[in-house]
Specification:
Blueprint: H1 12-29, H2 31-34
Length: 43
């Protein structure tokens, strides 16, 4: 049986990268349809 590796613990640098580079893209391109507030627009 194959088991998945345990998730890595985020470092302060990786959190900063996500917040500065990734989250803005998600907010501008994805959240309108794919957020909890979207009320079923995306799946």
């Amino acid at each position: 049986m194959v088991q998945a590796a345990a998730p890595a613990t985020p470092t302060p640098e990786s959190i900063a990268f996500f917040e500065q580079k990734i989250r803005p893209v998600l907010v501008s391109a994805c959240y309108e349809c794919h957020s909890a507030e979207a009320k079923g627009k995306g799946k």
